[in-house]
Amino acid sequence: MIEAESLSLRYPGGREALGDLSFRIDAGEMVFITGRSGAGKSTLVKLIANLLLPSRGVLRVLDCEPSRLARRHRPGLRRRIGMVFQDHRLLPSLSAADNVALPLRIQGAPDGEIERRVRAALDLVGLGQRARALPATLSGGEQQRVGIARAIVHRPPLLLADEPTGNLDPQLSVEIMALFERLGAHGTTVLIASHDLPLIRQMRKRVLVLEQGRLQEDFRPQAEPA
Amino acid sequence: MSRANLRGESRLRRLRWRHQRARKDALLHLSRQPAGHAFALLLLALALLALLLLKTGIDQFRHLGAPLQQAHALSLFLDESIDGTAAAALREQLQDDPRVVLAQAISPDAGLAELLHAEGSEEALSALPGNPLPWVIVIEPRDRDAAATLARDWRGRAQVSDIAEESQWRDRADAVVRTARAVLTGLALLVIGGVVLLVANAVRTIRVEGAEERALQRIFGASEADLRRPYLYLGALYGLIASVAAVVLALVVFLLLGPALAELTAAFALDPAGSRPDWPWLVGMIPAAVVMGTAGAWLACLFEKDVEASA
């Protein structure tokens, strides 16, 4: 599903954002990437999302090697990936339903298909009744759930989330994580960049720890003794 | 949710849906700020109207220039000693020359009669004791080069006292006509460039508002062609609406100025069609403007950051 071998990224100014990363994530896994601010979590997510290209090393995502893909084929790979952002990035002039429909419109889905899938995605995140609402009238948690519905509406095999609970209270964060866990149970690979350590510990999933762009640890927290 | 995806749909069908959606988006853009678009469209329509009028001007200059291209007549004034028989023999000799289209002999009497018809010369001619005019052979050469070589060959011969070349002033007039046509053609090209840039600027202004949306669309896998498509349709719509408005304006212009233009064309022996609407051109302007609008929109879409920069 995702495979990195000696993966490095150096910005044009010369600063190394990621260095010599090697890991493998299998299909259906739910994995957290954590580390301090500036450790390279978001950069790694952007690399996997095919929004940046590595300077060195090999990265394989969904059986493709983005750096070997012709420029015109890169959007095709992005269409198979769902993205959730910390700041939701909802379009303010569009309703929740229209925001969720965005990936399907990009794929050229017919209107009937879009309507059906958007309704299903909003129901899944518990916002079926708020389909016509504009983002400004939704709470932070609701906006994040709309963002998640948008990321899963086209049923991508890979879901990437960059600090998805960064602006949410602990209760909402747990609900959002439960939602990701449900998606994982349906076979979607979920990769979450987060610095919320208590939440990560609570989820007991595999964790990649980054430190100054390098992989420090790759472990799965054990269940805490009762 | 099931894992079924959209890859089952045929590529052609998906492309058709994308085009349909792009057309809808283009119409949506137009409906958002109708007043702003109306001004831009009016400006475009006026530019296209100017293009139509320039085309009429170019046609008229072409019509004016056509006879000048052909007329390079030579007049051979024969020696006083040449009588009618010798003049006829010379005319035949010239007519047989492959460089000559037509050779006509004009007798002194016919020449005098022609002069008497000319305004203001009757008094002066009637004062003369007799007819001082010689036999004249008027030659219509095949082309300009033929005129020059004929004049060179016949100048200095004993039978010919003088040769009048009518081509010089015609060459000058021809040059003026050609320059005017070139200027009008240049202006027409500038107007076409202006139309393309007007559309480019209008589309660029609209695109500024949608930058965030496009950045997001790129992240979710929209290709540059997907992002460009609605704006190309918008440019085409601009061209379509503005050209229809320009055609209507042109018809109004011809309706109002038709009689005056007809008089003008008659007075200058211009093409009478110039005072009437040129329907093939009016109709042809519409697809041409659609192409210009699309080109302008394409230009506006050329310079945008790629996804790496917007991520």
Automatic annotation (TrEMBL), chain A:
Q: Which GO terms describe its cellular component?
A: plasma membrane
Role played: Part of the ABC transporter FtsEX involved in cellular division. Important for assembly or stability of the septal ring.
| SUPFAM superfamilies for the chain | P-loop containing nucleoside triphosphate hydrolases (SSF52540)
Q: How does it assemble?
A: Homodimer. Forms a membrane-associated complex with FtsX.
Location in the cell: Cell inner membrane; Cell membrane
Chief location of this protein? membrane
One example of a Gene Ontology biological process annotation: cell division
- Pfam families given for it? ABC_tran
Query: What protein family is recorded?
Result: Belongs to the ABC transporter superfamily.
Which protein is depicted? Cell division ATP-binding protein FtsE
Topology within the bilayer? Peripheral membrane protein
Q: Which is one GO molecular function term here? A: ATP binding
Residue ranges occupied by any ABC transporter domain in the UniProt entry? 2-226
The source's domain of life comes to Bacteria
Q: Which PROSITE patterns match?
A: ABC_TRANSPORTER_1 (PS00211), ABC_TRANSPORTER_2 (PS50893)
* Gene name of the encoded protein: ftsE
Q: Does the keyword Ion transport apply?
A: no
> Record's NCBIfam families?
FtsE
Instruction: Enumerate the InterPro entries for this protein.
Output: AAA+_ATPase, ABC_transporter-like_ATP-bd, ABC_transporter-like_CS, ABC_transpr_LolD-like, Cell_div_FtsE, P-loop_NTPase
Provide this UniProt record's keywords sorted from A to Z. Answer: ATP-binding, Cell cycle, Cell division, Cell membrane, Membrane, Nucleotide-binding
UniProtKB/TrEMBL annotation, chain B:
Which residue range or ranges hold the ABC3 transporter permease C-terminal domain?
A: 187-300
In this entry, which stretches build a coiled coil? none
Its protein name is Cell division protein FtsX
Compartment(s) where it occurs, according to its Swiss-Prot or TrEMBL record: Cell membrane
Taxonomic classification: Bacteria, Pseudomonadati, Pseudomonadota, Gammaproteobacteria, Lysobacterales
What is the source species? Pseudofulvimonas gallinarii
Q: Mind listing the UniProt keywords for this protein, alphabetically?
A: Cell cycle, Cell division, Cell membrane, Membrane, Transmembrane, Transmembrane helix
The membrane topology term of the UniProt record is: Multi-pass membrane protein
Parts of the chain that traverse the membrane: 182-203, 237-261, 281-303
**Tell me, which GO biological process terms does this entry list?**
cell division
Give the family per the record. Belongs to the ABC-4 integral membrane protein family. FtsX subfamily.
Annotated Gene Ontology cellular component terms: cell division site; plasma membrane
Q: Identify the residues that the record assigns to the FtsX extracellular domain, covering every copy.
A: 74-163
